[in-house]
Design brief:
heterodimer, A: about 775 residues, alpha/beta, N-terminal domain of TfIIb, Rossmann fold, Dimethylsulfoxide Reductase, domain 2, 4 domains, seven-stranded mixed β-sheet, six-stranded mixed β-sheet, about 20% strand, globular, B: about 180 residues, little secondary structure, two-stranded antiparallel ribbon, 2 strands
Chain lengths: ~775, ~180
């Protein structure tokens, strides 16, 4: 059926192009429409498939194009992710291309003004400035800051240019800020990145446990799939473990309010309960698991040049049992606020082996100073209870961005990574990359480069002297932003900042050179979503003015710097880069489908072997790589003899906790209507009008004690900055007492001036959910 | 645009009385949509986003309030309405946007006695009578024969390129 649909669409598009000038009328009865009938019917709209531009769900859309412009977007009924349904952001995608202030030509800073220049001049200038820095200061003075919204070819080209050409590992994506803890969680537990399950698990589950995860707003289409499952099977339960009563909580059957950082104690408490009540799956553990303990008291990374290396030590089940025994229901209550009865009810959800349980999580567990640990701990809950490897029973780490998986993780555009789970620190991995890239042995630097937070610290210090930012807006989104904004980069001679984007942002405002980029279906692209699904799309409309794809920009500069051999001339650049990248994935269990196969369907889930996708990884019979008779084969976990690791990881406090001077927790995040820093969604009238401004969300009792009122103004002050915001009480969500929540989308109200740049020492992902803040009423 | 809107072919002449200003009606419809086919925004305040609150009025399509009828949802299986339907809190814009949504849901048929073609995608609008039943809100035409539940027996999508269920997929629904 998908093949038929594609053929039909292709045919229609070709016919349309051939006869564009002909008034289409009705295709089945050409020419029968009365001449006075306006040419507004759907018949002259051509529909083509493309994945949504926004979150990591990866919904399939059909993009209706009429006379060179997008006229409509609807859900792709043939895409199993969403079966025709989208969310408000997806339906309003047409407007995202047509903000009046699209960047349409390269612009160079001259003092406080920007001057229009040509592409040749712009590209030559980057090559010259990057070349000069490279010659004078070496490859570590260069940096590239990319994105989980990079397409796969964009990320791959940047990766190859930096690590293979410039010999600099200083390339990191904004996915460091959202998915790095998920990556380290997967790698340390299973030896391979990304989920073993898929969205089909939703229809097989009896319970969903949401770990600090407001899915109703952040992954709305998956949430509606859960609600649809509940609608058909009344026994299905949603358990919402949360610090805020959210839109998700309204549909949950059980809402467990927990203190920030309490998840570490709760997960350990569940593990202890399973052991004490003999509710562990001993056969599964014997066959497929092993136990480890790592370093403890590992710090928070708030100091420059912080470094950390874990030291895993094998332990026995009995040693593990003794360690986890500290997490009695009483201690869990002290640390998390969750009462013993509630903890037991939650543990019993996992313990019932007649039921299938999915844990879902995203930023709550990843943007966490112990992000790797809490990922490890939730895997421990699933491994101990055996809630894994059956349809509907799986731990499921969701991604935030449309290609955080496909580009940042699979292509490996992180500072330590190479494609397909490889690392620059491993000689054989470097050798494989050098071979595929046609480079001499020893070309790739064995030292990991700068991760995102340290990259911006280095830029501020002056250690990084030339940086290129693509597809992201760090001068809204970096934590402890004040430090970087105070660097006054626009007026410094010792740094050269290039920013490629589609609209003016606070990041383009401080750039030395601004490049106009093509957006979404203005270019050919490929994304990879949260369930290992790779999707490709064609260019459907022309970009505005002189805007060009980011991949073209990167490759043009690389060629000008003498790396023509890395990027040979091509008539089909994106496809050729993708196919080259694909060679990294083959034979290692990460096999992505061919571009040609993907262009026929609404995506395929890797590993794709002999053209067949894999729904359940590590399961013999489902995954062609999984061997043996057992329930699972963790074949990526080579270091631990194909066994998944059950880690003991303790509770440790957050980097900064409320005290007398700063008595509240500050947590930040998104809303359904806005994407990240809002540079796209705020330009869409319907989305902006629904949430025009950010706000400070408070518990009504905290507001009453403080004297704050609805729509009044409060001043938020942390050790790093201060901001005045309108008060929101009892609207979209209500945080626990002692917590305030602020969405970060509004560039005029930079909440990240206040956030703390503490990060997980293993993943280097910052914790945007926890720092200490003081509130004062400004007006009522 | 008004010239275009005046040319709106309508199914049921009774529904659009000759004196009714078609452009006003059409404008009303497009006022709440980014383009024809986009989820309409909510033209009233949402006091409380409680579970089931929207359904109280929008399930039956029988509720009238201050002279307006609450439209019946064509997809009652989707229960979290604010996933797609937004309430505007301001008329202002962050930055101007040049996208102009088109009203293309205009009926066409081969000859005056032929059944009207379906001018819009059917995805999430499989239940025709939710919108085209007895409580149809102008300018959406109401069916003269709602008892014949299987609409796509005679009414076909206007173009083979229109996305959504193919002809032959049951798209009727109980009246």
């Amino acid at each position: 059926m998908p093949l038929d649909r594609k053929a039909e669409m292709t045919c229609t598009r070709r016919d349309f192009l051939k006869t564009a000038a002909v008034s289409a009328g009705v295709v089945t009865v050409p020419g029968c429409a009365p001449s006075s009938t306006p040419d507004l019917s759907l018949s002259d709209v051509t529909w083509s498939r493309a994945p949504c531009r926004f979150c990591g769900t990866g919904c399939g859309t059909l993009v209706g194009v009429r006379r060179g412009k997008i006229a409509a977007v609807t859900g792709d009924p043939d895409c199993s992710v969403n079966e025709g349904l989208l969310c408000a952001k997806g339906y309003h995608l047409p407007g995202v291309l047509y903000g009046e202030d699209r960047l349409t030509h390269p612009m160079l800073r001259r003092g406080d003004r920007f001057e229009r220049i040509g592409w040749d001049e712009a590209l030559d200038l980057i090559a010259e400035r990057f070349g000069a820095v490279l010659a004078e200061h070496g490859p570590n003075a260069l940096a590239m800051y990319g994105s989980g919204q990079w397409t796969i070819p964009e990320g791959y080209a940047a990766q190859k240019w930096f690590k293979g050409g410039l010999r600099s590992n200083n390339i990191d994506p904004n996915a460091r800020l959202c998915m790095a803890s998920a990556v380290t969680g997967f790698m340390t537990t299973f030896g391979g990145d990304e989920p073993m399950g898929c969205y089909d698990d939703i229809e097989h589950a009896d319970a969903y446990v949401l770990w600090g995860n407001n899915m109703a707003e952040m992954h709305p289409v998956l949430f509606s799939r859960m609600l649809a499952r509940k609608g058909k099977a009344s026994h299905v339960r949603i358990v919402d473990l949360t610090t805020r009563r959210t839109e998700t909580s309204r549909y949950a059957d059980d809402v467990l309010m927990m203190k920030p950082q309490g998840d570490l104690a709760i997960a350990n408490g569940i593990c202890r309960w399973l052991l004490v009540h003999d509710a562990i799956d001993s056969a599964f553990i014997n066959d497929h698991c092993t136990f480890r303990r790592g370093k403890e008291d590992i710090g928070y990374g708030t100091e420059d040049h912080f470094s950390f290396k874990d030291d895993p030590q094998p332990i026995t089940l009995d040693q593990y049992r003794a360690l986890v025994d500290d997490y009695t229901p009483q201690r869990v209550q002290e640390l998390s606020g969750v009462a013993p009865d509630d903890l037991e009810r939650l543990a019993r959800v996992f313990a019932d082996d007649r039921k299938n349980v999915i844990s879902f999580w995203c930023m709550g567990m990843n943007q966490h100073v112990r992000g790797t640990w809490i990922n490890n701990l939730v895997y421990a809950v699933h491994l101990l209870s055996g809630q894994i490897g059956r349809p509907g029973a799986t731990p499921f780490s969701l991604t935030g961005q449309p290609s955080a998986c496909g580009t940042a993780r699979e292509v490996g555009t992180l500072a330590h990574a190479l494609p397909s789970d490889m690392s620059v620190t491993v000689p054989e991995h470097r050798a494989k990359a050098e071979k595929i890239w046609g480079l001499p042995e020893g070309t790739i630097d064995p030292e990991p480069g700068l991760h995102a937070v340290e990259m911006f610290r280095a830029l501020e210090r002056g250690d990084v002297k030339a940086m290129w930012v693509q597809v992201t807006n760090p001068f809204v989104t970096m934590p402890n932003l004040r430090r970087f904004r105070d660097a006054k980069l626009a007026h410094r001679d010792d740094s050269f900042l290039v920013v490629s984007d589609v609209y003016p942002t606070p990041t383009t405002a401080i750039a030395d050179l601004v490049l106009p980029s093509s957006l979404w279906v203005e270019k050919v692209g490929a994304f990879g979503n949260s369930e290992r699904r790779t999707q490709v799309w064609d260019q459907l409309v022309p970009p505005p003015g002189e805007a060009r794809p980011d991949v073209w920009q990167t490759v043009e500069v690389a060629r000008r710097m003498g790396f023509e051999a890395l990027f040979p001339e091509s008539d089909d650049l994106e496809r050729d880069l993708y196919e080259e990248y694909r060679t990294f994935t083959l034979g290692v269990g990460k096999d992505v489908a061919t571009w040609d196969d993907l262009s026929e369907v609404a995506g395929l889930r890797w590993p794709v072997v002999d053209g067949k996708e894999t729904r359940w990884r590590y399961v013999p019979g489902e995954d062609p790589y999984a061997q043996g008779e057992g329930r699972m084969d963790f074949y990526k976990a080579k270091k631990t003899d194909n066994r998944a690791v059950i880690w003991f990881r303790p509770w440790e406090p957050a980097a900064e906790e409320p005290d007398d001077e700063y008595p509240f927790w500050l947590s930040t995040g998104r809303v359904l209507e806005h994407w990240h820093s809002g540079s796209m969604t705020r330009r869409i009238p319907e989305l902006h009008r629904a949430v025009p401004h950010t706000y400070c969300e408070m518990h009504p009792d905290d507001a009453r004690e403080l004297g704050a009122v609805q729509n009044g103004t409060v001043r938020l002050t942390t050790r790093r900055g201060t901001i005045d915001l309108p008060v929101s009480i009892g609207r979209r969500a209500t945080p626990m007492r002692g917590i305030v929540f602020v969405p970060f989308f509004e560039e005029e109200q930079l909440i990240n001036d206040l956030t703390l740049d503490a990060f997980c020492p293993i993943s280097k992902e910052p914790d945007y959910k926890k720092c200490a803040v003081r509130l004062e009423v400004v007006s009522t | 645009m008004s010239a275009l809107r005046c040319a709106l072919p309508v199914t049921i002449a009774v529904l659009l009385a000759a004196c009714a200003p078609a452009d006003v009606q059409a404008t009303g419809r497009m006022d709440t949509r980014a383009y024809d086919g986009a989820p309409p925004t909510i033209p009233h305040s949402v006091e409380e986003l409680g579970r089931g609150n929207c359904q109280a009025c929008h399930t039956s399509g029988h509720v009238e309030w201050e002279g307006k009828r609450a439209p019946r949802t064509p997809h009652p299986e989707h229960v979290r309405c604010t996933q797609c339907h937004l309430e505007p809190l301001t008329d202002e814009l962050f930055r101007p946007n040049t996208f102009v949504g088109e009203a293309w849901a205009t009926g066409q048929r081969q000859h005056p006695a032929a059944p009207w073609l379906i001018p819009h995608p059917l995805t999430m609008r499989e239940n025709c009578l939710a919108c085209h039943g007895e409580h149809a809100i102008e300018p959406v035409p109401a069916s003269t024969h709602p008892e014949r539940a299987r609409c796509t027996q005679c009414h076909l999508p206007v173009a083979e390129s229109a996305p959504g269920p193919r002809p032959g997929v049951p798209t009727g629904g109980s009246p």
